[in-house]
Write a structure and sequence with these properties.
- It is built from three helices and no strands.
- The protein is rod-shaped, with a radius of gyration of 17 Å.
- Helix 1 runs antiparallel to helix 3.
């Protein structure tokens, strides 16, 4: 496989991961907002907040991976 094809493959793969993580992030944000009164002062709320923080990190990681691939393409290495 040609170098350019590998770069496109990795970019597409990380973009798909990013899309999924962004959807998960939006889902957990909405879940927390819509159920605030139901889950206030519960362990469930704390757990959902932890999951939300994880999703934020996952989005950041996926963006960083895309950035690494794109910089590698620009540098030609």
């Amino acid at each position: 496989m040609l170098k350019k094809q590998y770069e496109e493959l990795w970019t597409a793969r990380f973009q798909k991961i990013l899309d999924g993580e962004e959807k998960s992030l939006a889902f957990y944000k909405q879940l927390l907002e819509e159920n605030e009164s139901l889950i206030s002062n519960t362990k469930a709320k704390d757990l959902l907040k932890e999951i939300l923080c994880d999703e934020v990190r996952h989005v950041q990681i996926a963006r960083k991976l895309i950035d690494i691939v794109s910089k590698k393409m620009v540098l030609g290495t």
